Amino acid sequence: MIETPYNAHLETQIEQISKRGGAFLTVSCEEQLNTMTIGWGSFGFIWGKPIIMVAVRSSRHTYGILERSLEFSVTIPQQSEAFREALELCGSKSGRDLDKFAAAGLVAIPGKKIATPVISGAAWQYECIVVYKQEMNDLSILAPDIGDRLYHPQTNPWHTLYYGEVVASYSTQ
Q1: Quick check: 161 and 51 in contact, CB under 8 A?
Q2: Read out DSSP for the chain?
Q3: How far apart are CA 13 and CA 78, in angstroms?
Q4: How far apart are the first and last CA of the chain?
Q5: Are 23 and 76 in contact (CB under 8 A)?
Q6: Band of residue 100 on the pLDDT scale cut at 50, 70, 90
Q7: How sure is the predictor about 112, in pLDDT bands with cuts at 50, 70 and 90?
Q8: How many Cα atoms sit within 13 Å of 50 on the Cβ side?
Q9: What does the alpha-carbon distance between residue 9 and residue 114 come to, in Å, rounded to a whole number?
């Protein structure tokens, strides 16, 4: 494991999230463990802290676990066929119905600073503690081209935006 500054390879990591299949957002609380694929997120520096912002819809299984734990990990895998298939599965199936780790052949390994694990393999790991969350709830303040395309109360509910302070950042390559 190689400790790295959270922003050491952002260009590559943002490209992985936005153009190459995404990243894993992992949450755990009590006996529940789940991961989902994210294709949206933001890295930044807010309130004097390194921050990763992730968006989770209230309809997702991940949402309930994250609401209880208020911490998460983000695993940005290197390109490989196995990870591509795992990202596809974790983005199309619900953890309510299946153990995504078993189905995708993923292995959870302990986080360094939080209770939520990270995903084993050649990847960049971020461990985050939620410092702020905001439920999106007002279509009138969202650009119409975004709101009209992405949010419909019955089929695509609002996201809650979770701002996680990066408390550990490292490579498991």
Answers
A1: no
A2: -EE--TTTTHHHHHHHHHHSS-EEEEEEETTEEEEEEES--EEEEETTEEEEEEEEETTSHHHHHHHHH-EEEEEEEPS-HHHHHHHHHHHHS-TTTS-HHHHHT--EE--SSSSS-EE-SSEEEEEEEEEEEEE---GGGS-HHHHHHH-BTTTBPPEEEEEEEEEEEEE--
A3: 9
A4: 7
A5: yes
A6: very high
A7: very high
A8: 13
A9: 22
Residue 20 makes CB contacts below 8 A (sequence gap 6+) with 79
Structure tokens at 25: 């957002």
pTM assigned to the model: 0.87
- Residue whose entry in the numeric block shows the structure tokens 């599965």: 89
Joined tokens for residue 37: 């694929």
The residue extents of the domains of the chain are 2-171
How many CA atoms lie less than 13 Å away from 151 in the CB half-sphere? 20
d(CA 162, CA 166): 12
Give the C-alpha separation, 79 to 32, whole Å.
Answer: 28
Any idea which architecture 2-171 has in CATH?
Roll (2.30)
CA separation for the pair 96, 112 (Å, rounded): 27
Alpha carbons within 13 A on the beta-carbon side of 58 = 13
Instruction: Output 20 or 46, whichever has higher pLDDT.
Output: 46
